[in-house]
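pasting for the record
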Amino acid sequence: MDMSLRKDFLWGGAVAAHQIEGGWQEGGKGISIADVMTAGDNVTGAPRRITDGVIEGENYPNHEATDFYHHYKEDIKLLAEMGFKAFRTSIAWTRIFPRGDEDTPNEAGLAFYDDLFDECHKYGIEPIVTLSHFELPWTIVKEYDGFKNRQVIDFFVKFAKVCFERYQHKVKYWMTFNEINNQADPIQHHILQEGGILLKEDDNPEEVMYQSAHYELVASALAVIEGHKINPDLQIGCMIAMNPIYPLTCKPEDNLAAQGAMHGKYWFADVHCKGRYPKYVFKKWERCGYNIDVTEEDLKILKEGTVDYIGFSYYMSFATGEREDNPYYDYSENYFTKNKYLKASDWGWQIDPSGLRWALNWFSDRYDLPMIIVENGFGAYDKKEADGSVDDSYRIDYLRSHIKAMIDAVNEEGVDLFGYTMWAPIDIVSASTGEFDKRYGFIYVDKNNKGEGTLERSKKKSFYWYKDVIATNGEKL
């Protein structure tokens, strides 16, 4: 079969500022929501906790993270050695506006990203930048109630405009909100990461989610509009967490349940890409009696601020079926069932490369926009040998099968795909569990769940494998 990946395909890797940078109080940086989240533990089942500010004696893994803030030149050089064409990261809002509501940005924070992007360009690596990746300012949470407050739209747009103006000649590809649709399951963890909201006792979490998400979507559309005014050549996309939801059986009601779950998780993409809400969202609000503040001006902004491309993450798929306690086929992760045809990681994430091909076609059929896979990876317990090597053949197997599915979607169905940035090329803090032992990288970082280690970098077996993949534009897997 002839390869059809474009010659300028953007092979690379992806991280988030709060999971890699550290330096949480350096360069004038303020406290973000990630800075008040403790470490969890997959072995004991202990979840990450959200503390009221930073409390002495707690383990906050994002404070130092992988210390990219001081190691970025060394790390970018390692990515360049693999042949990276692109590096996706985020700009920590609290480095630019430490509180989130200042009139004037923090020059030291702006300068750090200038230096980082310059270092990428030194090796011919294209930066791909997310504006908000689970790191809203803590002040926005405590003093403004996050995106429950319409005023926060203005704070985000100001932040976006400062970034677009400063880096317009260094960064071509942007995304607004990372995995904005994770909050479709409105548990506290998701609501805080996405919307900067601490739920109150009398809150209806789902109603809060819809209101917060609406304000975020308006903020995203305004950012797209303002970014294109600053520089029409900027490509500004969305970032959707994609987990295809299959019917558990061929029973017709199971198919309706899967369709309902897809509706509940992916209406965000309709707003981003089509500039309008699907009708079933309004019907849901009506049925539940939700009073969501949506103005005519908002709807006009959403229509005008549609995205240029779709960025999405893909790790796994889900399955669901009919349930007596879910007569309207609503979305909830509590309704998902293990798919007997799939194996899973140590964290229970089901491994489904065919789901990636399905996802690419779903996006292509629905929106007909260019796409980039900006997260896809395998979290695992890696063992470092005495000689410093790590045999992570299981990671190679996972990535190989998913990249093959990606290439098949391009070759067989003609999907418009311009890049693949796996998650994450260097071991970092897990966003969901706060662990270091849940490793994704091609590059091992000497640090454990307790925060102990030298931070020394070493290359895993997958480092050399991915180098060959990039060098052959995916021909050698």
